[in-house]
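== Sequence, structure tokens ==
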Amino acid sequence: HDTETAQQHVEDAGPERVHLSAGDLEPDVSDAGRSGEPPGLGDLDPGKSFKKGDFMAQLDTSALQLEIAGIQNNYEAAKQRIAVGSQIALELANAQDNLDNLERLTKSGNYPEAELVKQRRSVEQIKQKYELEKVNNRKEVEGYENDLKVKKLQLEKMTLTTPFDCVISAVLARPGDIIAPNQPVATLISTRPTVA
């Protein structure tokens, strides 16, 4: 047998052994070969054999799924708020209409030029405020989208699949344990023949 690693963060546990941890594995995104709910950590037993890519265990995803739901709700609310329209856009439209009227009055000599200049500056300030609001809205939506991608990637990584053909030599976590990122949950021994 030779020792293989799941990815770069798997800890060596001596010759022919590696520690398997949730953060080091390829995510399993298919449901092939499984029926109903994933079995969890209870199905990891010493001596049990696995082929590369086999489903091994499902960590508890309930807290992460609640986080994803909260982010998704905030994301949808932000998109709906933006779709409703901006108060600043309405303020800008009203200010622009007012400025147009004042321009006509100034041309006819019924409004002072100095006051018209103030109104133009006021409209420019509102335009800047509106552009800044659009930038902030875009940033908010993109932030939620990024948060969702990160959390969904974390969710995928909570399904453990084997990185190579192996046998479990030791189980380091049990159902109900809190598993930290990169915390070993099992020690695997490669069953791939050693090439001389």
Summary: The helical segments are 62-84, 87-107, 113-156.
